Amino acid sequence: MNPVLELREGSLACEGVSLDTIAEAVGTPAYVYSSSAIRGQFERLDRALSGIPHRIHYSLKANANAAILRLVRSLGGGADVVSGGELYRALQGGFAPEDVVFGGVGKSARELAEAVEAGVRLINVESEAELRLLDGLACERKRKVPVGLRLNPEITVDSPHAYIRTGGKGHKFGIPWDEGLSAARLAASLPWLELAGLDMHVGSQLAELDAYERGLERVLGLLEAIRGEGISSVRYLDIGGGLAVPYEDEAPPDLRAYGRIVRDATRRTGLELLVEPGRFLVADAGSLLTRVLYRKRSGGREIAVTDAGMTELLRPSHYQAYHHIEPVRPRQRVTVRIDVVGPVCESGDFLALDREMPDIEAGDLLVVRTAGAYGYSMASNYNARPRAAEVLVDGDRYAVTTEREEYADLIRLERHALEWRTT
Ligand SMILES: Cc1ncc(COP(=O)(O)O)c(C=O)c1O
């Protein structure tokens, strides 16, 4: 289980700061991130890839917190973005454009133009139509643009939920396998594009590393075919993100095996490796603090209503994901089977169902573990709920990195005096 939190003087603490202290000072719900955990994961991955020319591009979609971006940048990481908004965040977070890779299945002309103007390292393209659009935008700006082809290797992968599998036949992501070579020919022939990379991202929370092995075999087979046609411009191999983290009692991914697979596959290609980890870098580092508001019993079920729910952490209801939950101040408690549910007016709003855990009472402070990835970044204002605060811990100090939203933030963009327009 998560080593990020340790018991100190009767309360769980993140690094040197008690979660009680943070909850008292900042309120709940609140996300708390450990910088040392993020640092540790980054360094572990970097070590696993040693000997391979590589760049680690952190996937902002997992958590685009500005302080986390600064931390990743200070470690020498780049950014992987999937929208104009994420590109904006990455640049605001201090990443140089050449440290950014831009991907995504549905980039608009505006977003592509922004990436061209910024001068990002690589734009991963997902269709021939997108290649043509990008070439036109590059021509208008007289900028030669390095592109990668995101290929769909059409392999089945083992990950805990269908929504996080992205490299299977018929999925919306990537260039269908049988169109890969013709897309490469097109990219190489368009005057304002340079075919600079091949890319795959076959899924998230991948349980088996052989997904990388099988995907790489296909993609590198295509590289040979491309080079066989005299196209020699490909210099990047982007293998996406997808490394898993343990949420319950799963084994962590074998990073040495991951490194070995990638090293063996890329050894003779001369390519520079790009990886786009999201979850792996930040999931474990993040904890969600929530207070129990009410305790009730209904139809034979024990229920605890907390002040965080699907608006703060969507993963349990959206992916039926498991997150370990426990009281911040453990004491002798009887064990119960209990539903830990949020305050949102939806039956699908829960953090855990039928969970066996120490009994909890109204007022208890709980911690939801392994919540650093796809937590705050998927948070919403549903039920007009202001989004939570975010806190970064570094040793024995902590800082609020994102203030809790105010009610006024909920209506900030709304116009009260309507300016009617007629056609
Ligand atoms: C293109 C791409 N790269 C990287 C990632 C990050 O994945 P993970 O958080 O599993 O590492 C994703 C997530 O879905 C993605 O779509």
Give short descriptive properties of this protein:
single chain, 423 residues, alpha/beta, Lyase, Ornithine Decarboxylase, Chain A, domain 1, TIM Barrel, 2 domains, nine-stranded mixed beta sheet, 12 helices
What does it look like?
The protein contains twelve helices and 20 strands. Helix 8 (210-228) runs parallel beside helix 9. By secondary structure, it is α/β, with parallel strands linked by helices. It folds into two domains: 5-33 and 285-410, Lyase, Ornithine Decarboxylase, Chain A, domain 1, CATH 2.40.37.10; 49-278, TIM Barrel. Helix content is 28%, strand content 25%. The chain has helices spanning 19-26, 35-48, 66-74, 84-92, 109-118, 128-140, 180-189, 210-228, 255-266, 279-282, 315-319, 407-410; strands at residues 5-8, 11-14, 17-18, 30-34, 54-59, 78-81, 100-102, 122-125, 145-150, 193-199, 236-238, 272-275, 286-298, 301-306, 325-327, 335-341, 350-358, 365-368, 389-394, 397-402. Pyridoxal-5'-phosphate (PLP) is lined by residues 59, 61-62, 80, 103, 201, 204, 240-243, 276-280, 373. Pyridoxal-5'-phosphate (PLP) binds at residues 59, 61-62, 80, 103, 201, 204, 240-243, 276-280, 373.
